[in-house]
Automatic annotation (TrEMBL), chain A:
Name of the featured protein: Ferredoxin
InterPro entries: 3Fe4S_ferredoxin, 4Fe4S_Fe-S-bd, Fe-S_cluster_ET
Source superkingdom: Bacteria
Function statement: Ferredoxins are iron-sulfur proteins that transfer electrons in a wide variety of metabolic reactions.
Species annotation: Streptomyces natalensis ATCC 27448
Required cofactor names: [3Fe-4S] cluster
GO MF term (any one): iron ion binding
One Pfam family cited in the UniProt record for this chain: Fer4_13
Residues of the 4Fe-4S ferredoxin-type domain: 1-29
SUPFAM superfamilies xref list: 4Fe-4S ferredoxins
This protein's UniProt keywords: 3Fe-4S, Electron transport, Iron, Iron-sulfur, Metal-binding, Transport
TrEMBL record, chain B:
Family named by the database record: Belongs to the cytochrome P450 family.
SUPFAM superfamilies in alphabetical order: Cytochrome P450
Alphabetic keyword roster: Heme, Iron, Metal-binding, Monooxygenase, Oxidoreductase
PANTHER family recorded: CYTOCHROME P450 YJIB-RELATED (PTHR46696:SF1), P450, PUTATIVE (EUROFUNG)-RELATED (PTHR46696)
Protein's UniProt name: Cytochrome
Source organism (scientific name): Streptomyces gilvosporeus
Top-level taxonomy: Bacteria, Bacillati, Actinomycetota, Actinomycetes, Kitasatosporales
Disordered: annotated segments: 1-50
An example Gene Ontology molecular-function term: heme binding
């Protein structure tokens, strides 16, 4: 799995951080998404898919 | 209210819809049955005609979208504008219309589109990000305990709204913003007028102006003597003029008051009405995070819908929404949609409710949601732990529900322990 987060689209609501805290974080200056691990282990895939599904700005995409 | 005071009405009329098709009104009347359920007319629309016409309080009409998938589509699609200055934009109350259109100063980013919306919102995203809000847990816990200490001191009954549910988020947002809590009666009253379905345009305008004047005054004070609140930081950035600062401060203050307070009281009531769920949450406190998501889903206090206006023709389901037509997204029926939440009319604290859209969806999704979550988790966990005998002090039928307000909840919640 490979994760791409579009920082232009992100509206900083933080849902991804709650859904997958090992994979997503927010930049200190402006709360915009940062990907901590762009190729996370299989155990985190479900959480990442959930994060992508609930992201209100459709900023997270995932390729397998 | 006279017709002369409703100049926008003509814009809203839908030319090719016969009057009879507009039988659905918003705010819709709730059934005599369960007060936690969406109005039956809107529920029926979700099942039978998920994209339908509705009539608003001022006689204007708009589209009403009721399913989870369609609501996500509308709120996530820039072809639907959040700009309240566009003709056709649907307003749920005179107060909300006043808030959005009264003067240039009263415009806020929640009623604007990108790039202006993003520019203003991004000045605040760092303030409410997850790790910053998580770090506030000890402070929120301290305030929660102090309020409960005061409420239970030598007594065994109180109004949970007045003594706990409202003061807690109010104290927190005042602390965060740098607004003196001593003024709380002043801004709580004004924000109630702005959100009441019963306020006239004049009352709403007066409340709106008074709040703006208050925030402008405060901004000047922060310029002189900055503190470490959000408001001072906005002033210090130097990017916003006084009007923009005042309207942003007012928005945060109102949003911080009306939402978490009602979720706290309504959640408590919903749990008291569902003793099995209450017992489960008490015996498994680790469920609290998921339970808060489920309560957000089940109760969805923004119960009259989120407004947008189409900027181009868009086909949704088998309906075509024309450019310039208003759309209301019913978050509460979307959050009961069986396609996403099987058995959605049942409160189940063990459910995975994370796909709820109680905070809205799209780039306007609630900025303060990490804060709301922390407050709700701490408030409910502490309340249930500290008051094992918590119960209603009056019959359920006597609880005054906020049928008259833009944000659902209860006006008072008499409890005993
Ligand atoms: S959920 Fe989406 S919009 Fe929110 S912080 Fe994460 S990437 Fe940004």
């Amino acid at each position: 799995m490979r994760i791409h987060a579009d920082q232009e689209k992100c509206c900083g609501a933080g849902s991804c951080v709650l859904a997958a805290p090992d994979v997503f974080d927010q930049r200190d200056e402006d709360g915009i998404v940062v990907v901590l691990d762009a190729e996370p282990p299989a155990a985190l895939h479900d959480a990442v898919r959930e994060a992508a599904a609930i992201c209100p700005a459709a900023a997270i995409s995932v390729t397998d | 209210m006279t017709t002369a005071q409703r100049p926008q009405e003509a814009h809203h009329a839908h030319p090719d819809t016969p009057a009879s098709a507009d039988a659905l009104t918003v705010p819709a009347t709730r059934a005599t049955g369960c007060p936690f359920d969406p109005a039956p007319t809107v529920e029926r629309a979700r099942r039978e005609e998920p994209v339908t016409r509705a009539t608003l309080w001022d006689g204007s009409s708009c589209w009403l979208v009721t399913r989870h998938e369609d609501v996500r589509t509308v709120l996530g699609d820039p072809r639907f504008s959040a700009d309240a200055a566009r003709p056709g934009f649907p307003f749920l109350t005179a107060g909300l219309r006043e808030l959005a259109t009264g003067t240039r100063a009263s415009r806020t980013f929640i009623r604007q589109d990108d790039p202006e919306h993003a520019r203003l919102r991004r000045m605040l995203t760092a303030e409410f990000m997850v790790k910053k809000v998580e770090a506030m847990r000890p402070e929120v816990q301290r305030l929660t305990d102090e309020l409960l200490d005061a409420m239970t001191d030598g007594r065994n009954a109180a109004d949970l709204v007045a003594e706990f549910a409202l003061p807690l988020p109010s104290l927190v947002i005042c602390l965060l913003l740098g607004v003196p809590y001593e003024d709380h009666t002043f801004f709580q009253q004004r924000s109630a007028v702005l959100l009441s379905l019963r306020s006239s345009a004049e009352e709403a305008r007066a409340a709106s102006d008074e709040l703006l004047a208050y925030m402008t005054h405060l901004a000047e004070a922060k310029r002189e003597r900055p503190d470490d609140g959000i408001f001072s930081r906005l002033v210090a950035r130097g990017e916003l003029d006084s009007e923009e600062i005042a309207s942003m401060g007012r928005l945060l203050l109102i949003a911080g008051h009306e939402t978490t307070a009602n979720m706290t009281a309504l959640s408590t009531l919903a749990l008291l009405r569902n003793p099995g769920q209450l017992a489960r949450l008490r015996s498994e406190p680790s469920l609290i995070k998921g339970a808060v998501e489920e309560l957000l889903r089940y109760l969805t206090i923004v119960h009259n819908g989120v407004p947008r206006v189409a900027v181009e023709d868009v086909t949704l389901g088998c309906r075509t929404i024309r450019a310039g037509e208003g759309v209301l997204c019913a978050l509460n029926t979307a959050n009961r949609d069986e396609a996403v939440f099987p058995g959605g009319d049942t409160l189940d604290v063990g459910r995975d409710a994370r796909r709820h859209i109680a905070f809205g969806f799209g780039v306007h999704q609630c900025l303060g949601q990490p804060l709301a979550r922390v407050e709700l988790q701490i408030a409910l966990e502490t309340l249930l732990r500290r008051l094992p005998g918590l119960r209603l002090a009056v019959p359920f039928e006597e609880i005054p529900f906020r049928h008259d307000m833009g944000i659902y909840g209860v006006h008072a919640l008499p409890v005993a322990w």
